[in-house]
Amino acid sequence: MTEVKDVVVVGAGFAGLAALYKMRALGLSVAGIEQAPDVGGVWYHNNYPGARCDVESVDYSYSFSDALQVEWEWTEKYAAQPEILAYLRHVAERFDLRPLIRFNTRVLSASREAEDRRWLVETDAGDVISCEYLVMASGSLSAPKDPDFAGLQDFKGEWYQTSFWPKDPVKFEGKRVGLIGTGSSGVQSGPKIAETAEHLTVFQRTPVFTIPARNGPMDQEKFTAVKARYPEYREEAKTFRIGSPLYSTGRPTTDFTPDELRQVLAARWEAGGPALSGSFTDAGRVLEANNKVVAFVHERIREIVKDPETAELLCPKDHPIGARRICIDTDYYATYNRENVTLVDVRTHPIERITAAGIKTTEKEYPLDMIVFAIGFDAVTGAMTRINITNKEGLSIADKWRDGAGTYLGLMTAGFPNLFIVTGPGSPSVLVNMVAAIEHDVHWIGDTISYLRKNHLQRIEATAEAEDEWTDHVAEIGSGLLLSKANSWYMGSNIAGKKRFLVAYPLGMPPYRQKVEEIVADGYRGFVLS
Ligand code: FAD
Ligand code: NAP
Fold it and tell me: Based on the domain organization, do 517 and 471 belong to the same domain?
C-alpha cells in the first residue's frame, strides 16, 4: 500500500538529521530512510582506527540550536569518530528524530507519479511512499569504491574497507597487514594500525600531501570563549571561504622574500591543521607559487623520514599541493621510521592481483594476514546515481549525469521537479567545512518549501538554461585553478569511465551564499515555480 508524506529524506547523517529537524519544524509530515542500522552517515560507516575530523570540532558541528552547541562538550581539537557519532546520536535523541527514520532500509528508486505531481519512493523493505518533496541527503562520500581487485576471492586472510568498517573490534596484533590507499583514510588509519600490527605494508600509488594536525585536548579557555558568543562566532565563520575560520596571509607568494616565505610556512606547519593550504592568494592558481609551498613540504618530509629512499617516495611530485585533498594527520610520515612499516611503490610496480597468501605486484608477492582497503568513493554523484531516480520522461539521474553532473547551484537538477539535493555537485560541498555547507542547503530547501506553500505553489524546477549557465560557470572558474589539473576524486578521475569534471564550486561559501540569496531575492531567478 502506498503511504503518503509531504517529504522523504534519504540518509541520516549530518544532512539527513538536519533536514528531518527542519522539515518537521515546518509542520510537514516526513519520513527519513537510512540503509544503515543507525544514524551518523560517514561517522557510522567509517569507524576505522584513527578516523577523526579535519575541521576543528567547534566548527564541525551544528549551529541550528544554541542550546546544543553550548551544552555539547568536545574533548579534542579534532574530534575522533566515536565522539562525532556520539554527538549525532545525541542530536537524534535530543530532538526526537529517531521515530521519523526507517533504518536498515535502502531507497531503490524514485519516480514521478502519473500526473507528475509527486515522487514515488520505493525501498528494499517494500515501502512505497508518495511524497511532494524528495530531499537527497544521501551523502557526498557515501558510495564506496568496490575493492574489485583480481583474485580477492582467493585471499585466505581477513580483509576490510575503511568506508565499511566492522562494528566488532578488529585486532591487528601478530598480523602482517597490507594497506592499499594513501588518501585521508589511509593516512589516518596507517599510523594506528602500525601501533599494534606485527608488520604494516603500505601500497602507495600516489603520494599525498599531509600536514600535522597537532591534535590535542580541547583548549577549554578557547572553547568557553566561543560558547559565550557562539551565534556571533558562527556568523563570522560564514565570512571565511571554507565556512569556518581559515586565515590566509591575503597576499601572493611574490610579496615575500624566500626567508619570509619560509617563516610563514614554518609557523603554519607548527600550528598544524589546514592553515598551510590557504596561506597565499596565488598558490592555488600559479604553478610557480604552488611549487614554493611544495618545496617546503618536501623538505619537511625529508627531515622527518629517516630512510632517504622512502622519503623520496613519499614526496608528491606529480601534482600541485591542494589539487588533491590535503590530509591532516597524526604521525603519518614518522610512521615510516618504524621498523615494522614498509612502503611499497605500486605506481612503478602495480598490484597485479591478490593471491591466497597476500598481494602480488608486478615485482613480487607480499605475504599478508590482512588487507585494509582505503581506496575511496564514487564521490558526490555516486550515492544518487546508484538509486534509480527517474523523471516524467523516464530519464534517470545516472543517465542525465553521465556526461557531467549538471545542476543549478548544486541544489536542483533540471527536469527533476521538487527534488532537492544537499551539497550536490556544483555546490561548494566537499571543498568546504561540510557541516556549514549542509546547514546552508537545508535552510534553503526548508525556506523554499515554505515559500512554495505560502504562495500556493506546487512545484519548483531549475530551468535547463540556468543549469547550463551555472555548470559552465563552475567549470570555467575551475579551469583557472590548479585544482582541475590533477587526477583526483575532485575531478571524478578515481572512477573508471566517469566523465572528468570539477565536482564542486571552488570559490567557497561567501560568494556562493551571496549568489543564492540574489537569486531568491530576484524571485527564484532560473527556477520555474508553478
Ligand atoms: P553522509 O554522512 O554520507 O550520510 C549519507 C547517508 O545516506 C548515509 O548514512 C548512507 O548510508 C545513506 N544513504 C545513501 N544512499 C542511500 C540509499 N539509497 N538508501 C538509504 N540510505 C542511503 N567533511 C568535513 O567537512 N570535515 C571532515 O573532517 C570530514 N571528515 C570526513 C571523514 C571521512 C572518513 C569521510 C568519508 C568524510 C569526511 N568528511 C568531512 C565529508 C563528510 O562526507 C561530511 O562532512 C558529512 O559527514 C556528510 O554528511 P551527509 O549527511 O551529507 O552524508
Ligand atoms: P581517496 O582520497 O580517494 O584515496 C584513495 C586511495 O586509494 C588513493 O591513494 C588511491 O590512489 C588509492 N587507490 C585506489 N584504487 C587503487 C588501486 N587499484 N591500487 C592502488 N591504490 C589505489 O579516498 P579516502 O582516503 O577514503 O578519502 C576520500 C575523502 O574523504 C577525503 O579526500 C576527504 O574528503 C574525506 N575524508 C576525510 C578524512 C578526514 O581527515 N577527516 C578522513 C577520511 C576521508 P590513487 O590516488 O593513485 O588513485
Answer: yes
We report the CATH number of the domain holding residue 369 as 3.50.50.60
Domain ends where: 341, 376, 411? 376
45 with 168, same domain?
Answer: no
* Dihedral (Cα; 508, 511, 512, 513), 10-degree rounding: 120
Ligand 2 near 325 CB (within 6 A): yes
Q: Are residues 192 and 93 in the same domain?
A: no
CA distances in angstroms from 147 to 1, 127, 355, 365, 468, listed in the order given: 38, 31, 14, 18, 35
d(C-alpha 172, C-alpha 370), whole Å: 8
Q: Is the CB of 142 under 6 A from ligand 1?
A: yes
Residue 276's pLDDT is what? 83
Task: Report the candidate in 72, 63, 20 with the shortest Cα–Cα distance to residue 422.
Answer: 20
pLDDT tens digits, residue range 253-305?
999 999 999 999 999 999 998 888 788 999 999 999 999 999 999 999 999 99
Residue 123, pLDDT > 80, answer yes
Q: Do 66 and 35 belong together in one domain?
A: yes
Report whether residue 127 contacts ligand 1, using a CB cutoff of 6 Å: no
Question: Cell numbers 561548494 label which residue?
Answer: 428
The percent of residues in the chain predicted with pLDDT above 70, rounded, is 100
> Are 352 and 473 part of one and the same domain?
no
Q: What is the pLDDT of residues 19-38, one digit of tens each?
A: 999 999 999 999 999 999 99
Task: Please tell me the total count of domains within the chain.
Answer: 2
Residue 300 C-alpha to ligand 1 middle, in angstroms?
A: 32
Range of the domain at 429: 2-143+378-529
Ordered DSSP codes for 92-134? HHHTT-GGGEE-S--EEEEEE-TTSSSEEEEETTS-EEEEEEE
Q: What is the pLDDT of residues 360-400, one digit of tens each?
A: 999 999 999 999 999 999 999 999 999 999 999 999 999 99
- The response to whether residue 188 sits with its C-beta less than 6 Å from ligand 2 reads yes
